[in-house]
Amino acid sequence: MTGKFYLSRRQFVGAALAAIAVPIIQACTPVTTPVPGAAPEATEPPVDTTPPAAGETAPPPEAGPTALPETGQETAPLPYTSQTDVSGQLEFWHFWGSPLRRNAIRRVIAGFNEHYPEIQITETFVPFGDIWTRAIAAVAAGSGMPDVLVDTVQLFDRAQNNIMTNLQELADRDNITEADFWPHAWAQANVEGNLYGLPYETDIRVLYYNKAQFADAGLDPETPPADWDALWTAADALDSIAENGSIERMGFHPLIGNIGLDQWAWCNGGEWQLEDGTPTINAPENVETLAWIQQWSDRYGKENVDAFQGTFGPPGLQDRFMSGKMSSLVDIQGYTSFLNFFNPNLSTEEGENLGYGLGAIPPAPGHEPVALSGGFALTNPRGSQQTEAMWEFAKCAVYVGQASWARDTYAVPTVQELARNDAVLNADPRWSFFIEAMDYGRPGVFNPFYPNMLEVLGPAVDAVLSGAMTPQEALGDAQRRAEEEIARARG
Questions:
Q1: Could you tell me which residue, 264 or 22, shows the higher pLDDT?
Q2: 66-203+374-442: what fold?
Q3: How do residues 67-113 score in pLDDT, each as one tens digit?
Q4: 384 or 18, greater pLDDT
Q5: CATH superfamily of 13-43+205-372
Q6: Which of 261, 373, 398, 408 is geometrically suited to a Cys-Cys bond with 104, CB 3.0 to 4.6 A?
Q7: Residue extent(s) of CATH 3.40.190.10 domains in the chain
Q8: Dihedral sign, CA of 159, 375, 360, 262?
């Protein structure tokens, strides 16, 4: 799968205009392995599938009920089994405090109220780092919990600990099944065959590359690198290194972008655990992948890479890609809306603006691309007295509201029908590429005995890139740490 798309017109300008007021962050990853010594870039993509960066650029609006819009128009029938006569007062907690997402979720709520006038929703912004701590404390206290909570891949852990309501009976009653959803999205909301949330938004990672720089370097601007070997060869042509070793332009680096060791190992046939939860962190494929990442670090020099990353500007024309400092990198589809808005002049030396291209994540030779597809789910904390009303809101938000949400945020809807056939989304010539790329998305790694197991990868990468350990030693140490944590949890 190759990308032959270029930036010839702006799409979704309204969404991107609101988005530039906030930082871009990485999408929902259980673990990231940034280049050690460099602070992670404070970014927030148009699809918000990971914690918002600390420090909103503007204070979030006050929480309050969302009023019913006075459209005066007859509403379309709902595409699911509905109980529109249900009434209730819902407290909805979310972490979408940026102007873009706050307005987007309010639009979803307003659309819901057109169909459900007897359900009133008070939506409340709670910072990403606090939302689950507060919800869990409320459940433990028996009061004060929200009726609707935006949750993540840690839902498995909260379901096992009886913090969230089992929604399977309601799903069976209304014939809500996996058939409507991307498989990875459904899997992340299910625990041992029971539904604990309705999947809400997802994403996919792809390769972005500067077509003008490729052309100037004698590479085919219509053909992105197909595998790791091609990435290395392209970087040979694209790199610009000063005599003192400082980096002026970098063709590629596997740890600069929205991806880390965890996903690169998948692209090399690696896995991080067996089906029974036994960790396989030091498997040969994973060790080989970390050695490959080390080769890239050695290519440029760790200190040079750290200094180079310090030159990246904030999201916009001076960021790592739009500024031309990085010729290619991996990011989620949501980065496209920023490229659409800023419309960078990615021109050849002769002045021809070729724009950017898209490609699948390059795997190791002989392997297929694989990447994390993150996302969220709408859940009902245990103790809520509004489960029926919550369920009606969740269905409407997921099956109907995700269309407007995706138009505003460039998120991929978890309902495949919306993602594949929404006319507004498909008006963007790049959208079909992202939907095709969804075929290689998969859920994150979750170990029931050690939910944050992949946190052991960060120190392993640090140790290797600093020269303290070999890849075999570092992942062997990470394997021991994971085994000890799992043994402790199992008792």
A1: 264
A2: D-Maltodextrin-Binding Protein; domain 2 (3.40.190)
A3: 333 333 445 678 999 999 999 999 999 999 988 889 999 999 999 99
A4: 384
A5: Periplasmic binding protein-like II (3.40.190.10)
A6: 408
A7: 13-43+205-372, 66-203+374-442
A8: negative
Average pLDDT, the chain: 86
Chain segment 312-322, per-residue pLDDT in tens: 998 889 999 99
- Residue 450 confidence class, pLDDT cut points 50, 70, 90: very high
- Relative orientation angle of helices 302-309 and 284-300, to the nearest 10 degrees: 70
- Whether 15 has a pLDDT exceeding 80, the answer reads no
pLDDT > 60? residue 276: yes
- Using pLDDT thresholds of 50, 70 and 90, give the confidence band for residue 19: very low
The answer to whether residues 190 and 379 touch, using CB atoms and an 8 Å cutoff, is: no
